[in-house]
Write a structure and sequence with these properties.
The chain has 95 residues and is of the alpha+beta class. Helix content is 32%, strand content 24%. The chain has a three-stranded antiparallel sheet, sandwiched between helices. The longest helix is centred in the last third of the chain and has 11 residues. The two termini are 25 Å apart. The model has no long low-confidence stretch (mean pLDDT 93).
Length: 95
């Protein structure tokens, strides 16, 4: 039987300047570690980072679809609303 590989959409918050970063992964702890160790170019200059929010999906494909829908919005208001409400209301694309 194959192991279920969930996906996560996460929002990181910079402890340095309060900016947010949206991403997706299958392993939250490992991904946060990579961000904080400077392996991710987009967040290298805003470290340290903490996880402000995450939401679990059945597959990494679904999580990536949500990430790609959220990233272009680049709205602090929308990101903070997601964190406050504890829920991403965007749905993944269905084939």
């Amino acid at each position: 039987m194959a192991k279920q590989c969930y996906g996560y959409v996460y929002i990181l918050k910079s402890n340095r300047n309060g900016t947010y970063y949206i991403g997706s992964t299958q392993d939250l702890e490992k991904r946060l570690e990579r961000h904080n160790n400077g392996f991710v170019k987009a967040t290298r200059n805003i470290r340290p980072l903490t996880i402000a929010f995450y939401q679990k999906y059945e597959t990494i494909k679904e999580a990536k679809q949500i990430e790609y829908k959220l990233k272009p919005l680049k709205s602090r208001k929308i990101i903070e609303q997601i964190i406050t409400e504890g829920c991403i209301k965007v749905k993944p694309t269905r084939p």
